[in-house]
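Support request, please re-run this one:
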Amino acid sequence: MQLELENIESDYPRWLKSYLRHLKYKDSSKNTLEVYTRILHKLLEFIQSQSLAHSMRDMHKEFFLDFLEYAEERSKKGNFSKKTKQLYVSVLKSFFVYISDNNDESYTYENEFNISHIATKQAKKVKYLTDEEVYKIVDYLDNRRLNRGSYYDHIYALGIKIMLYGGLRISELLSLRLNDFTVSDLVNERGEHDIYELHLKETKSG
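Re-run finished. Output below.
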């Protein structure tokens, strides 16, 4: 594709359409597509509201930093966590590397993304729930389910247990339907089919 045909307000959507098609046929998850689309449409909003860049070649490191500040100021909290900044930089880099690899003039943006240091300080070690904490949560859920026994108490208990023991992300859990549960062919020592399998259609890893 040609890097530029007219101006940035028409060239950027052209590239964005091509990139989102690329993600779709690369079998990216539904959640990935939604996140990338949201961030890259926000960049289009920024492009339309500013006069810093008039062509695709005008987008450089300072432009992207200005965009990150713009997006951060308009977020619900008015600021981004380190992980959110990392996410934005990762999405921008992926999109503009795609443009770098697919334009006819071999124009590259790769050097514009030495900005990841703004969000890539050494990550804190992830904290996990201890076995004791898991038991407390499960006891609470079971007591609530047995004492109140409402429909939603059963649903919430099942959902939280699936996340605890199955390792599902919240987005994966919320997309589950009853027909995604099947009884496994595996049997226990008594020959009973007591294991359920979950079939996930949309996962981050595919």
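The chain has seven helices and two strands. The chain has a mean pLDDT of 87.
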